[in-house]
Specification:
This protein has a domain at 1-91. The protein contains 6 helices and 6 strands; from the N terminus they run E-E-E-H-E-H-H-E-E-H-H-H. The protein has helices at 31-42, 56-88, 103-134, 153-185, 200-231, 245-270, and strands at 15-16, 20-21, 23-24, 48-49, 145-146, 149-150.
């Protein structure tokens, strides 16, 4: 390893079983050894240590360096652990716990944990709102603020998308219920679901409901017209609406009845 002054100094690496692989610089005190350790730490290798056998001022420097690099090593391990636990394994309650809590060390711990909480809180809000929708509760929406602070950026965009979805579900559901009640229960024919701004599947669903209501309205009105005509003595009217299934059977039965009534009336008149 090159000394800062240009001469050479040798460093050896020993294994330390308790802490895994450790780079222990075993020379006597020298600026070159300290520089080598600092450069190793700068390059992101926090396994480097200065000898614990140094005494005096050099010993204090070694102890202080080792404490700093150990704190960095533990911080890196904690960040990796929490990143895996929260991001990969879904353990959302995991938080960083640094051994050092003084000054900036404590601030870093608080900042990281606050970041995790800030990232998770909008997700929890979206989950809460969607869970309510899954249970048929369309009154719950994603809150657009956190502790009095308005959401911003992607958090706000995601919240607005979910809230728009819930709003469209609510409008669509309310309109379907209204049309079904008007046509099926109240007998108010001609009702149509009005869901503004819908597209895609929402529009297809709305169109299907309206088509069903239109078909039912046309069928019932045509049957009512023929029945009214028969009751008024007009046997010239027949059901002409295009129908299928059981409604077709009803259409054929009524038209047959009208034909029979007309034939009967004609015979009676002739006699």
């Amino acid at each position: 390893m090159k000394r800062a002054s240009g001469t050479l100094t040798t460093a050896t690496e020993n294994a330390e079983p308790k802490n895994g692989s450790r780079k222990i610089l075993t020379e006597g005190p020298s600026l070159a050894v300290i520089l080598a350790a600092l450069q190793t730490m700068r390059d992101g290798d926090f396994s480097v240590r200065l000898p614990g056998s140094w005494t005096g001022l050099e010993g204090k420097i070694a102890d202080t360096f080792n404490e700093i690099v150990a704190a960095n090593e533990q911080m890196a391990q904690e960040l990796k652990r929490v990143g895996k636990a929260v991001g990969k394994e879904g353990k959302t309650r995991e938080r960083t716990r640094f051994h050092e809590s003084k000054g900036a060390w404590g601030q870093i711990e608080v900042s990281v944990n606050t970041l995790v909480e800030d990232l998770l809180r909008p997700t929890a809000e979206v989950t809460r709102a969607i869970a309510a929708v899954a249970q048929g509760n369309l009154t719950q929406t994603v809150r657009l603020d956190v502790d009095g602070r308005p959401l911003e950026g992607e958090f706000l965009r995601s919240a607005n998308i979910v809230n728009t979805m819930i709003q469209q579900l609510g409008v669509f559901t309310a309109e379907v219920i209204r049309v079904a009640r008007e046509v099926g229960t109240d007998g108010k024919l001609g009702g149509q679901a009005q869901v503004p701004g819908v597209a895609g599947t929402w529009k297809d669903l709305t169109d299907s409901v309206n088509l069903m209501a239109n078909n039912l309205t046309g069928q019932v009105r045509n049957i009512a017209e023929v029945a009214t005509a028969v009751a008024s003595g007009d046997l010239s009217r027949k059901i002409t609406v295009d129908v299928r299934g059981e409604i077709l059977q009803l259409k054929e039965a009524i038209n047959t009845m009208v034909d029979q009534l007309r034939s009967f009336a004609s015979e009676v008149t002739r006699v």
